[in-house]
Amino acid sequence: MAKLTYTQLSFNELEGWLDDDHQAAFDVFKTISDNMNDPHWSVLSDFSKIDPDPRQFFEAFFRPVLIDGGQPMLFTGYFEPELRGGREQSDAFPHPIYNVPDDLEAGTLFYSRREIEEERTLADKGLEIAWLADPLDAFFLQVQGSGRISFPDGSVMRVGFGAKNGHPYTSIGAKLVQRGLIAEDAISAEAIRNWVRENGDEGRELLWENESYVFFREVSGVPSEDGPLGTMGCSITPGRSIAVDAEIVTLGTPVWIEKSGRDPIHRLMVAQDTGSAIKGAHRADIFVGTGIEAGKTAGSINDTGRMVVLLPATLARDLLAEQD
């Protein structure tokens, strides 16, 4: 990992800062601030409970800091899929999603995607949570990390991230671009789906190049109107929650987004989630929402821009002093 550099900015340098809905971001921050135990953050959690003016709260207690890891910023999007499935295996629903195996140990390599899917190393162990119609639905459910499964009897199961198999994540979209099979400006989740479907065995082999495999858990007690649970264990909010590399940005941190592209975004969000592909200071994943339309929007986000983290004033001061 390249050495990180930190540059403090002023709020006046954040394009669109005055025009944002700071209350919306503040409401998200307030729901998760109690989960941040570091002294720099816990005092801000206390202040957030006295119902301050949101913009004044952020401007008084935070400092905008640009973290540079030496690579251009890339924003992508993610969503919560809604899929049809079955509680039992059938001709209509032959593809399983699995619960976390008892013998999976954090930090160690487990079976690869190919071994699980081709060699069926987890079959008949009672780990199946549900069954899906399309192997690509199962694959992209793992990419998103959570989803809702609708069963023929009208019931719905919500599943969330349980664990990973320890293998590194490989972007199959990037593989398609590198091989000249899809143009970089045309890559999207739908383009990937279409290529895999149209290329039979070669498409299946491409999916197996991503050896990372995600196991799920059934999520109960989350109201249907709320978003899925993020890494912090709280529901995430469409358009206000973002996934980051937690080794660089502390979860719970407010982050200012300046995303370019067809639909620019200048907005204050909160880092509540992580993702296998989100590594480095130059990567962030914007949570869009639930369902088909959200999926289309999320799949179209592949844009450059700038992300500025809002750090507690005392933490920003100490960090910049260490850098000097």
Structure description:
With 324 residues, this protein is of the alpha+beta class. Helices cover 28% and strands 27% of the residues. The strands form 2 sheets. Strands 1-2-15-11-12-10-13-3-14 form a 9-stranded mixed beta sheet. A 6-stranded mixed beta sheet has the order 5-6-4-7-8-9, covered by helices on one side. The longest helix has 11 residues, at 22-32. The chain is globular and about 60 Å long. The chain starts with a strand and ends with a helix. The model has no long low-confidence stretch (mean pLDDT 92).
Count of DSSP strands:
15
Structural class, from helix and strand content? alpha+beta
CA-based gyration radius: 21 Å
**N/C terminus separation:** 20 Å
Major sheet summary line? 9 strands, mixed
In N-to-C order, the SSE pattern is EHHHEEEEHEHEEHHHEEEEEHEEH
Within the largest sheet, what's the order of strands?
1-2-15-11-12-10-13-3-14
Summarize the structure.
The protein is an alpha+beta fold. The chain is built from ten helices and 15 strands.
List descriptors.
324 residues, alpha+beta, six-stranded mixed beta sheet, 28% helix, globular
How do the helices and strands line up, and which of them pair or pack?
Blueprint: E1 5-8, H1 22-32, H2 39-48, H3 54-61, E2 62-68, E3 74-80, E4 82-86, E5 95-98, H4 113-117, E6 128-132, H5 135-144, E7 146-150, E8 156-164, H6 172-178, H7 189-198, H8 200-209, E9 214-218, E10 241-243, E11 254-259, E12 265-273, E13 283-290, H9 292-300, E14 302-303, E15 305-312, H10 313-323
Helix pairs in contact: 7-8
